[in-house]
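dumping this here so i dont lose it
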């Protein structure tokens, strides 16, 4: 009998668990919080009180809709309740012009597809459009806010240049992805050949080479 006071703290939890039945009040153990706090043992473990894994899928995987986000439940849901889901989209903030589109607008219907956090994932570049990065000119508020600074690529105004087509042969067709220096300077080819051949390694008389050596348009 002298051992009983010493053993009682060890035996008491076993006695409580052994006495827990589906008809009893919920057996409170540490994971039972929020919406789980009101559940009885059999709600999760069944009448046999079989052990189950302590994760959402153990009980709720069958409740995941067919077209649901494929990630982990904890990415959006908490123990407070399914309807209180909050998706953490901080990796691609949904503000500016992105504050309004629904999940389907970007990820499609049915099984949501993963989308890279870059403009081209959703926005198609028009034919003949400048081939730089979208964010080089646009911001996330609206496409119409584009601010193109030509001096980031080649200083303007340039001597003798009156409009875009003077340097961009396809500008009238809406394409600015090619440029030409030799349209204006072609009459100087013999002079350039005399000056560069044998003096400049890899010299070729074309516009790309001109820009490589004269990025500011200077002599």
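and the seq i came up w/
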């Amino acid at each position: 009998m002298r051992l009983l006071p010493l053993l009682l703290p060890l035996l008491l939890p076993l006695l409580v668990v052994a006495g827990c039945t589906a008809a009893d009040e919920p057996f409170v153990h540490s994971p039972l919080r929020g919406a789980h706090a009101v559940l009885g043992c059999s709600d999760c473990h069944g009448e046999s009180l079989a052990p189950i894994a302590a994760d959402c899928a153990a009980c709720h995987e069958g409740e995941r809709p067919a077209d649901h986000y494929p990630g982990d439940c904890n990415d959006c849901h908490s123990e407070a309740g399914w309807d209180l889901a909050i998706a953490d989209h901080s990796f691609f903030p949904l503000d500016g012009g992105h504050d309004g589109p629904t999940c389907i607008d970007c990820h499609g219907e049915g099984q949501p597809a993963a989308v890279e956090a870059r403009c081209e994932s959703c926005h198609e570049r028009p034919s003949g459009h400048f081939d730089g990065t979208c964010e080089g000119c646009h911001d996330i508020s609206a496409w119409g806010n584009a601010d193109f600074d030509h001096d980031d690529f080649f200083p303007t105004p340039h001597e003798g240049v009156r409009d875009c087509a003077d340097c961009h042969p396809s500008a009238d067709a809406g394409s600015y992805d090619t440029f030409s220096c030799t349209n204006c300077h072609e009459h100087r080819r013999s002079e350039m050949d005399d000056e560069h051949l044998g003096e400049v390694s890899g010299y070729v008389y074309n516009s790309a080479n001109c820009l490589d050596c004269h990025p500011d348009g200077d002599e």
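The mean pLDDT is 76.
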